[in-house]
From TrEMBL:
GO terms for biological process: asexual sporulation; negative regulation of sporulation resulting in formation of a cellular spore; sporulation resulting in formation of a cellular spore. The gene is spoIIAB. One of its GO terms (molecular function) is sigma factor antagonist activity. HAMAP family: Anti_sigma_F. It comes from Anaerofilum hominis. Belongs to the anti-sigma-factor family. This is Anti-sigma F factor. InterPro entries: Anti-sigma-factor_SerPK, Anti-sigma_F, HATPase_C_sf, HATPase_dom.
Amino acid sequence: MKPINQTKITFPSRSSNEAFARGAVAAFVAQLDPTVDELADIKTAVSEAVTNCIVHAYPGTIGNVYITVSIFEDGRVRLRIADKGVGIADVQAAMQPMSTTGGAERAGLGFTVMQTFMDTLRVRSTPGKGTVVTMGKTIARRC
């Protein structure tokens, strides 16, 4: 099924851009008239995915973060957040709670948070080439 609306955003992996990403996605999704809770779920998941790009994909350097937000007629929202960073060698292990490459100051809960707040989560990664996180959530229609 083709999206009825879509936007793409690219920005440098600076921590100051995490709030921008969260706000931009929320503003785009607002056209579906989500509840405050639905919007908060999406913003939280975007925040986690973008933070993963900033902290893990480009350690010690700056690269680009790519976000595609697609809206479908049935109220589904698909978020694709990608980087061209270092990639993840073992995606299954990385998705386990408490798994982190970010040191003691990181909780290792990013993927767990994304799974909790979104309906679907898929992670694809190739070491040395980057990671793509695809998440989905259906916004309930209120008539």
